[in-house]
Structures are given as structure tokens and as C-alpha cells.
Write a structure and sequence with these properties.
- The chain has one domain: dinb family like domain (Four Helix Bundle (Hemerythrin (Met), subunit A)).
- The protein has eight helices and two strands.
- Strand 1 and strand 2 form a beta hairpin.
- The N and C termini lie far apart (37 Å).
């Protein structure tokens, strides 16, 4: 497994752990994502990763374990009995496999700086998974601590894209960094989250 795939695997496992920790009565809890519940945050991450894998493979995304397909940037509404953990596990496995498949490296994907080959995006992965792991934990009272090595690596590779990321469908405005903030707090403020 490449370093890029291993980083995504670690982030995916962290997200899965937070999904499994959500109580049955917490799925409608609000999160730091405006207007998104805990269920919607998870559905969004599944949908975006699943659509990206489908693009890389030249296929159409398919519903998984009660999570329907939605357009990129929108949130699918999972069935009441959707198995979000199973849907994420399958999606993450497919994403990790795509990272290490040479045939996927040259596939052009949309980004804040235009279309770029998938292979050029790998160092900034898995920013979406990390940010939404924190969102899910914050919204449900879970473990908010992220893998610090992952955070530092992703943050370092996103900083040069600062201006390009300030798009309605990417990151919102930066938020103030609290005094004494660690790298996780800096990263989350960079992504527009309020961490205090």
C-alpha cells in the first residue's frame, strides 16, 4: 500500500469509528456544517467519495446500503434503516484501491484550480474525511481528536491553495485561530470551522 493510500485508510478508519460511536438518538443532531445533521454529514462523505471513485473507474455510482446517489455537492437522504457504517466501509475500500491503481492516476477531476489528474491531488487527501470526522464528533459529543500526523500533512499541502479554496462548494472563510492552538485547531480554522 502506498503512503497516500495508507493515509486515506487511516482517515477512513477514524471516520468509521466515529460513525459506529453515534447513538441511535443522535443521528438528527446538528453539526458544525450549517443545516446538516450527523446523518447528513456521513451521507455527504459517502456520496462524494463514491462519486469520485465512479469517475475514476468510468462507471456510474450506485446506491449502497440505503444511501442513495446525489449530485456532487448535494446531500443524499439515506433510508431510515440505512447502514451508514457498511456504506462507508465499502466506499473507503474502493477509494483506497483507486489510489493505488495506476490507471486512475491520470483521470482528470474537478478541483478549485480547474481539472487536474487524480495523481496530483493525492497529497492533499483525505481533507474532506478529516474535516467531517471532526464535524461528526463535535455534533454528537464524540472523540474530536484527529490523527495529528495526517492533519499536519494535509494542512501543509492545502495551504498553497488557500485563495482557490474559498469557494461556496469548498471552504468558507477562515475563522480566528485561538491562542495556543495546535495544528488540528489551525487546520480546522483554515477550513472555516469554529473550534472553541
Amino acid at each position: 500500500m502506498s503512503e497516500q493510500a495508507e493515509r486515506y485508510r487511516r482517515a477512513a478508519d477514524g471516520f468509521l469509528a466515529r460513525i459506529k460511536a453515534v447513538g441511535d438518538d443522535q443521528w438528527d443532531s446538528p453539526t458544525p456544517c450549517p443545516d446538516w445533521t450527523a446523518r447528513q454529514v456521513v451521507a455527504h462523505v459517502i456520496n462524494e467519495a463514491r462519486r469520485m471513485v465512479a469517475t475514476l473507474r468510468g462507471t456510474e455510482p450506485k446506491p449502497l446500503y440505503g444511501v442513495p446517489v446525489a449530485e456532487m455537492g448535494t446531500v443524499p437522504e439515506p433510508a431510515a434503516d440505512a447502514d451508514l457504517a457498511a456504506a462507508w466501509s465499502q466506499t473507503a475500500d474502493a477509494f483506497v484501491a483507486a489510489i493505488d491503481d495506476p490507471a486512475c492516476r491520470s483521470v482528470q477531476l474537478p478541483s478549485p484550480v480547474g481539472f487536474v489528474p487524480f495523481g496530483q491531488t493525492l497529497e492533499a487527501l483525505p481533507e474532506d474525511v478529516l474535516i467531517h470526522t471532526w464535524d461528526l464528533a463535535r455534533g454528537t459529543g464524540g472523540d474530536e481528536r484527529l490523527d495529528q500526523d495526517l492533519v499536519a500533512h494535509v494542512y501543509e499541502h492545502l495551504k498553497p491553495l488557500d485563495e482557490a479554496l474559498r469557494q461556496p462548494w469548498a471552504f468558507g472563510p477562515r475563522t480566528p485561530i485561538p491562542a495556543g492552538a495546535d495544528v488540528q485547531a489551525e487546520f480546522l480554522c483554515f477550513a472555516g470551522r469554529v473550534v472553541v
